[in-house]
Design brief:
Elements lengths: L1 E7 L17 H17 L5 E3 L3 H14 L4 E2 L13 H11 L4 H7 L7 H13 L5 E5 L1 H11 L15 E7 L2 E6 L7 H4 L2
Parallel strand pairs: 1-4, 2-3, 2-4
Antiparallel strand pairs: 1-5, 5-6
Helix pairs in contact: 1-2
Amino acid sequence: MARLYLIRHARPSASWGEESDPALDAIGREQAQAAAEALSQTLEHMPIYTSPLRRCRETAHPLEKLWQRTADVLEPVAEIPSPPLDRRRRQQWLTEAMLGTWQDLNRSAPPGSPDYLAWRQALLSALARMSGDAVIFTHFIAINVVVGTAQSRDDVACFRPDHASVTCVEMANESVRLLELGRQSDTAVLARG
């Protein structure tokens, strides 16, 4: 059984609706450093994986330096793919999506959208293939996929992981056991109406 430490990226310099791949802001860089120090004090060195997006790669960087190990990019833990909408409408779509279920999201997706149930399954399958314990820098929705699976819930958003928070799960095949929810907070995505 692999123990996976899912870290939400630290605070970015722009919201998901404003920019597709923002860097961390000054507070985010401090959060990333604090998370790395806490992880290095409590965990043995293990593989590090990251979403390909900049905010996750930058959040992983302090831990890479402390452990002197490079994070491998794990494509399936990237942010939920957005439908073909402009930024304003994309933000509205995400806000509405987070209030519903995965079935609702897939059924109501705009034309040209990916299959969100297949995206969700690909993420779970990638994590299920982990052969051992790992630290994974990822995103709000991706963490919710894992937590929702552990809790047998179909909600797109089951909880609100804060920036640089750590959620711990155990995975065996596609069975997920929640060990610890990360620190929670309001998210800018849900705070805007």
